[in-house]
Design a protein that fits this description.
- The structure is a homodimer.
- Chain A is mainly α.
- Chain A contains 24 helices and no strands.
- Chain A has helices spanning 9-20, 32-36, 83-98, 101-105, 117-150, 156-169, 172-181, 186-212, 219-223, 227-252, 256-284, 294-298, 307-332, 337-343, 348-354, 356-381, 388-401, 404-412, 418-448, 450-453, 465-488, 493-509, 511-530, 542-550.
- Chain A is globular.
- The model of chain A is unreliable at 1-75, 290-299 and 540-555 (pLDDT under 50).
- At the A-B interface, helix 1, helix 2, helix 3, helix 6 and helix 7 of A face helix 1, helix 2, helix 3, helix 6 and helix 7 of B.
- Chains A, B: Residues 1-22, 43-80, 533-555 are annotated as: Disordered.
- Chains A, B: Belongs to the TMEM175 family.
- Chains A, B: This is Endosomal/lysosomal proton channel TMEM175.
Chain lengths: 555, 555
């Protein structure tokens, strides 16, 4: 019912200004375009969920049919588009995912102290807790993504229920690390399982509410004749984890190893099943769903992730990790006036120089994380569809990115403990390598299905392909080179590391130039070998260079 | 030049899949629609900046003319849409804006210790530093917003320059608090001024680069004949602050009070000039720009803010503040196994109960911040254009939101120090009141220009108007009520506060019901007075209730 069409002078004026005004149209969370519809049912798609139906022009619907008019937002039930809420949820979840890096970076490994076994053990435990909680929260985030592919639009109640869902998810890291710190106390396992059950309960509530008011659902499910079947299927997926945790909580009272086994299943089941189906798909070919349940499987809950949510979640993690060290600096490194007077004889410069390495660590950390974000941004700019393996590799890359501040902290402290220097530089190189190689792996995975996942310009032979390759290969190569150099020139490991830190940003800035040079050289070499005295193309015309190299044409 | 039209089988296949595939279209940062074009030049607007030109359908252009085709993203210079980079920047800046709340929440005001003058002074200083850095970073964020209204599209170099800009901005809080801690040491002032100058330098570089490659500019500036004038104007605005800081740095060497005066001017000048022009506008009427420089002023750099950026920045702040206390809990409140054995005789329950108040504080903090986010989200859903005063009020609201974790921390510790209880509850109520009343003020400000700023449904007389009013008035009323109750029932102040904490979320959930009831009552009262024994409308039909109340029709 279009309320703003009621005849009243105020409304008429409002409608006029509606058409005149330029309005930003946001087709942000187009649930169909996020790829959760499998190709053979595409004709069922009538139109995208107009997430911001502010403009009356029907031309804004990509598929033509205008399923939602401008008045929809003003419906009596107050339905709204979900994208801002989902961005907010992604921000919250990215903070929660990275929270357990704080104890790791705050592990006080003072240079004077021996880096002995107990500290190593503590650090290793904390790093393991960080990686596990990162994984767990990412599983919860992925489940949240699926849930809101089912829900097309939201209203106030759903927004509030989502806040409740967020609050339950925020307890995962704490309950997990409690469980790890007290592995044989039932309470630890119990609390973690209660947390998972609470999350499941709220999500089941959300599903129940959405199905109770079908206009809130994803249009494809809404129109389906098997809505009840969908509801059961979705609830089954949502409650699978909590049910296992319920059993685990029960077992914790008398036989807790069984609890751990069940919980490992809960955490790793999504990844294992994804990997298994991917392997099967690669070996056997895409799985043909049984004909009788064709319609049922067209809403593929194991389909690709929503690219916007992958972007938003990744941005959150990059932002937090990039600023992690400045948070500590702002809090701890403003010298105390008393200290300055007594310890440094009133010299503020001396007091600040003492924390000099921390500032250097921050610069390096921000620069590296920022450039890794830049590579991620460049990659996903050209990605159309984020598949499951790409999502997993992205998670792994982000997990290692979280370790960078620690790495830089350690390398900046090396100046006082020369014999650890080599080891710290190597660890830092290793972390940078893994963080960037997983990004490169996303690119490789995308290339395997480049027709679906990538835009034409970056596919093999495409114009931007070489630049993308260079952007994503830069950090892996640089860190590998640095690591190898430290094996040969052990005495200069620090200098090598700093050199890499300074050289890589410049390499990124001059990337296009360097790639063109490299391509020109690669092109000139065979020609030099085949024909004497050729005229190499002028390097000043980048289009000719790239085009002729990538689309070999007779000279 | 449309590279993907080159005749090759690979490309033809690619083009085919381009048209077949559903592609999310994102018209996110439509610079014109963010309102930076003043109305009398609207006919110059030919088309929105197609920030994600992935689909060849020209129908996607709202204004009809397709200024950028699908091949543009594949241009040799690698231009890209800017919205993801701007979202990332907003995430970074929201973290930096709230960073100085950490020392405030970590101020250890142990209940056993007397809340004496020195601690009060320390806390007050830290709160002041937090508020000032919040303000400063928000000024920097607003400047960044303006800068990227000039720049329409970005390329790799601009993305990297933006990262550099972000890094320089991240140093503002530290240098500011250093300056405040050492007010009479020239180095403090000098470092802060250097930071501001560095920001100005990078932004000037960005402007210079963008004007050097005009295709990167906002289309309106791009097509203008007075591009050089624009460039000067923009550079003047960007370098105004740094120039003043340069002078301040100079003065710091021999007469630092002058430095502080200059810096106060830098920080407050934008707000003062905004307020002055708003007052002038309200009193005198909209300012008519001089006819000869009509075209020059049509790109109004003092125009409204981009709503998407306000949303993104606000979401970042809400997310960080909501999770602030769980970060501490995850880091500090996992009991040490040794402590549990020794202090609590192996009872994990007892160990956790000791930090019980911290968990309660987290619940309350998350719930309150989450609900304030919900009110903000509901409001901005219906806001078309965010004006300057609205932006300022939003900043003030966010600044107070940042104070909520501290407030809840303090109230949760009251159990041990009864005589402070009243004061802490009152402070908490005050902070909640101010955080929510500024939100309400945004709404009021928007109502003053409702034709431009709000959608029809929420304007006065609109259908959702009453709900919006209720959502935004709930927290101010509740906190005011709680504050007043503590004056009367001083002994039960804690209970009152907890009651409010529990009641408000339920009130939000049942808001629509309560509003309809209230409206029905309001409607029934005059009718009861005017005519005996009327038949009140059935409360079960919400549409009739609201419609007949808001659009009085003869019964």
């Amino acid at each position: 019912m279009r309320r703003d069409e009621l005849p009243s002078p105020q409304k008429t004026g409002a409608l006029k200004s509606l058409t005149e005004q330029e309005k930003p149209v946001r087709k942000h969370y187009l649930l169909f375009d996020s790829g959760c519809v499998t190709p053979w049912k595409r004709e069922d798609v009538t139109g995208p969920t107009m997430s911001r139906p502010q403009s009356p022009e029907p031309a804004l619907n990509v598929q033509g049919a205008s399923s939602i008019g401008p008045g929809d937002e003003d419906a009596a039930d107050g339905t709204q588009h979900s994208h801002r809420m989902l961005s907010f949820s992604d921000a919250l979840l990215s903070i929660i995912a990275t929270v357990m890096i704080l104890p790791v970076t705050h592990t006080n490994i003072s240079p004077e102290q021996e880096f002995d076994k107990s500290i190593q053990k503590l650090l290793a435990t904390r790093i393991a807790v960080y990686l596990m909680t990162f994984l767990i929260v990412t599983v919860a985030w992925a489940a949240h993504t699926r849930l809101f592919q089912v829900v097309g639009k939201i209203d106030d109640t759903l927004a509030l229920l989502n806040l409740a869902c967020m609050m339950t998810i925020t307890f995962l890291p704490f309950t997990f690390s409690l469980m790890v710190t007290f592995p044989d106390v039932p309470l630890g396992i119990f609390l973690f399982c209660m947390c998972v059950i609470a999350i499941g309960a709220v999500q089941a509530l959300i599903v129940g509410y959405a199905f109770h008011f079908p206009h809130l659902l994803n249009p494809q499910i809404q129109r389906s004749a098997h809505r009840a079947l969908y509801k059961q299927h979705i609830l089954r997926i949502i409650l699978r984890g909590p049910a296992l945790c319920f059993a685990a909580a029960g077992f914790s009272l008398f036989f807790y190893p069984a609890s751990y086994l069940l919980m490992v299943t809960v955490i790793f089941l999504p990844y294992v099943s994804k990997a298994a189906s991917w392997c099967r798909g690669s070996l056997v070919g895409p799985r043909e769903p049984p004909a009788h349940s064709l319609e049922f499987f067209t809403f593929d809950l194991h389909g690709p992730l929503s690219k916007e949510r992958v972007d938003a979640f990744s941005d959150g993690v990059y932002a937090i990790v990039a600023t992690l060290l400045i948070l500590d600096i702002c809090e701890d490194n403003v010298p105390d006036p008393k200290d300055v007077r007594e310890k440094f004889s009133g010299s503020l410069v001396a007091a600040l120089s003492e924390s000099g390495p921390r500032f250097l660590a921050y610069f390096g950390s921000f620069a590296t994380v920022g450039l890794l974000w830049f590579a991620h941004h460049s990659l996903f700019l050209h990605v159309r569809k984020a598949t499951q393996p790409m999502g997993l590799l992205n998670t792994l890359s982000l997990a290692f990115v979280g370790g960078l501040p620690l790495a830089y902290q350690q390398t900046s402290a090396f100046a006082r403990q020369p014999h650890d220097e080599l080891e710290r530089v190597r660890v830092s190189c290793a972390i940078i390598f893994f963080a960037s190689i997983f990004q490169f792996a996303i690119w490789t995975t995308a290339l395997l299905q480049e027709g679906e996942t990538l835009q034409p310009s970056v596919r093999f032979g495409g114009q931007e392909h070489a630049f993308m390759f260079a952007k994503l290969a830069l950090y892996p190569c640089a860190s590998l080179l640095a690591f190898a150099s430290t094996c040969i020139l052990t005495r200069f490991s620090t200098a090598i590391f700093h050199l890499m830190q300074i050289a890589v940003p410049f390499a990124f800035l001059l990337l296009r130039l360097l790639v063109r040079l490299a391509l020109a050289i690669l092109r000139a070499l065979p020609r030099l070998a085949l024909r004497p005295a050729p005229t190499p193309p002028a390097p000043g015309d980048p289009r000719d260079d790239t085009r002729s190299l990538l689309h070999p044409a007779p000279c």
